[in-house]
Amino acid sequence: MLLKILIFSIAVYQVSPLQGGTNVGVGTFPSFVAIFLPTPTTICGGVILNNNHVLTLTSCMLNLNYQLLPANQVSIMTGWNTLDFNRPRTQVQAIYVHPRYSPFTLDNDVAVIRSLTPFIFPEVANPAVAPVLISDRIAFDTMACNLAAWNRNNSQLQTINPSIPIINRDQCNELAVNFGRLSEGMLCAGSIVAGSGVCATNIGAALYCNGRIEGILNSGFGCGAANNPGVYVQARMYEQWIQEQIRRQDIPAANSFPLERLP
Q1: What SS3 state is found at 88?
Q2: Which residues form the Peptidase S1 domain (predicted)?
Q3: What would the pLDDT profile of 88-97 be if each residue is shown by its tens digit?
């Protein structure tokens, strides 16, 4: 088991582009953002929840020692379909990570970040920036959903056409790469046969089902390999926790150890 965990942890940091991705235009996924980080990951995805909060991953908000990143070193790019370090970005005021996040199973890998200034939502028919609602229904097996991911190789916002299906969690847990680690707070999507698939540099990719956010990609970086579909944090399972973070007034200290149990 320990060997499998180590292999899994190392695999998270492999560098490859989204396999089978197709470029999309500005406004295709108006809630999807790029979060710029002072870590080896560099870029993590997330989605806008309201005018100053973004849903993302705890694993993106910690350094290699599991300390909280300084909020003033994290920034958010909204409204674009290409990555550009020279574009204006919104600074971050506070980072709220889940205290029960497990770096080994990746359970509870969810975080909320608060922007220093509000996001502007244009009042037009097809805005480039807009918030998204969290799904309030169970994503049934084979349900067709849409993926938004940053392809770091060509700096483009991409999707996998026409859609990717939800995979039964029990079936996903039976795959050797997962060794039964998937909890009720996770879901699988993609394919178990070789083809299109997500990679490590797509971390934080957003899975939309029926126009709502269903999950945030945190593992299953098979890059299209067989029997290694993407694994996502299931947003609806953390709705209450997310709302609690949005209401918080405190600002967690940079470089603190926010996890209840360290690895």
Answers
A1: coil
A2: 18-247
A3: 999 999 999 9
Domain spanning 2-247: which superfamily?
Trypsin-like serine proteases (2.40.10.10)
Q: Is 156 left (phi over 0), alpha (psi -120 to 50) or beta?
A: beta
Task: Please state, in angstroms and rounded to a whole number, the distance separating the CA atoms of residues 197 and 55.
Answer: 22
| Residue-level pLDDT at 88 | 92
What residues pair up with 54 in beta bridges, in sequence order? 48, 113
Model confidence, pTM: 0.92
CA distances from 191 to 93, 167, 194, 198, 227 (A): 38, 8, 7, 10, 8
Task: State both tokens at 29.
Answer: 């996924």
The C-alpha atoms of residue 263 and residue 257 are separated, in whole angstroms, by: 11
* CA separation for the pair 97, 238 (Å, rounded): 12
The token duo for 202 is 């797509």
> In this predicted model, what pLDDT tens digit does every residue of 106-148 receive, in sequence order?
999 999 999 999 999 998 878 999 999 999 999 999 999 999 9
Exposed, middle or buried, 181 (CB in 10 Å: 0-12/13-18/19+)?
buried
Pair of tokens at residue 52: 């100053």
Amino acid of residue 48: I
Domains of the chain by residue range: 2-247
pLDDT value at position 17?
Answer: 65
